[in-house]
Amino acid sequence: MPQETFDLVVAANRLPVDRVREGGRSVWRRSPGGLVTAMESVMNDRDGAWIGWSGVAGKAPAPFEQDGMHLHPVALSAEEVRDYYEGFSNGSLWPIYHDVIVPASFKRRWQAAYEQVNRRFAEVAAGLAAPGATVWVHDYQLQRMPQFLRELRPDVRIGWFNHIPFPPVELFMQLPARDALLQGLLGADFLGFQRRADAQNFLRACRQLLADEQVSVRGDVVRMANGHETRAAAVPISIDTAAMTELAATTAVQDRAAEIRRQLGNPTHLLLGVDRLDYTKGIRHRLKAIEELLREGQLAATDTKLIQVATPSRERLAAYQQIRDDVELTVGRINGDHAHIGAPAVTYLHRSFPREEMAALFVAADVMVVTPLRDGMNLVAKEYVAAHDDDGALVLSEFAGAATELKQAYLCNPHDIARTKQTILRAIEATAFERAPRMRAMRRQVQRHDVQHWAARFLADLAAAPGQP
Ligand code: GDG
Q1: Mean of the pLDDT values across residues 426-453?
Q2: pTM here?
Q3: Which of 100, 305, 424, 441 fits 267 for a cystine, CB–CB 3.0-4.6 Å?
């Protein structure tokens, strides 16, 4: 029987579901996050399929339906998880694309596995795409896929969206696979980036590194020797704003927010950090600033508390074990110096929570502290703005993509600890009168530019891209 085909195929490293145990049985549960919601809204209208890894190494489970989406698992062996995912994607690309906050490593074996897995994704997509279908590829793990797919299926429209920054050419050049990565992306018709600066970095890399390949760049379009054109532009991602605001307003979430504050002894100032435990997120810098403020007596642990949620991430990689150790050592020291019995200065939570609990934390926090050293966008900043009332404040790093949109945040350079301390103090001390117009302006921004708007804009840009000669 011929395989069923689809008008829209989404490809991402991971499927939008996780395998979990429920009542002694193993079942699929939808993973949290705006991307899944956004794709659901466009896929339901368009008969869509999603291809990705299930999260478990070995044989792929059979394709299945979930929430109106056709899900098609792609197999990864244990060696491929090590070499393509942990190695090339997170040991080579992730550091280079985030300003080399930790050194990048390069291994030829990793690169070979990346090629192999990207080719497999392309083959699966080629088999599922209907004639003239749209294939939307996501993120840095799949940069070779557009070229492989175009070779197999020149009739489909191919778009790619980068969730993380695209680095300046001086850093990108370090990658031994640099030409292959650019050629891979140039198989697409449209490339979406978080910020204009990211698209510009990509265009500059093509201009500088592919000149010998008869590739020319005019404006935001790259033209290959065979006449195929690829457009690169900014399409900043967002959140399901209405859903977050609605959830935050429910009695259950409001009550839980009040309870959280009560449990902490009703502090005058409740600060909050929510991050994947990643060295890009600037958690150490944030803790250092707060530790100094407490030590100098500019903040008092009796009336100021910090909750830091650090969701476990990439725990098999040494750089992630190191950041975890650093963060936990610092939290321990801060509490050792400033906590009272039953009243920690920093409540550190190294696990993940349901959406409702996250919303309650956003509602409860007087000041949200988001201090990445580099971040593609940072959705947490947008979620806080959508969930909290007018009497809140957002401290936001200039190095998060969100800083280009949330201009009324208290912006800071997390490398500059002295100024970051001042900025945190300003946000804490701001009056309701100063806070309200800032919060309202930022909320308007995320209401107008929500994730549904993002997905629709990406698909419109992809449909309008010049593409084939
Ligand atoms: C990449 C880019 C870009 C976190 N802990 C829990 C939980 N979360 C949710 C947050 C937020 C999401 O996960 C994290 O998104 P971020 O944008 O903050 O960061 P990355 O994971 O690094 O994402 C980033 C993003 O892609 C999208 O393009 O913005 O720059 O690095 O939604 O709320 N959700 C739940 N429990 C948790 O414990 N339910």
Answers
A1: 97
A2: 0.96
A3: 305
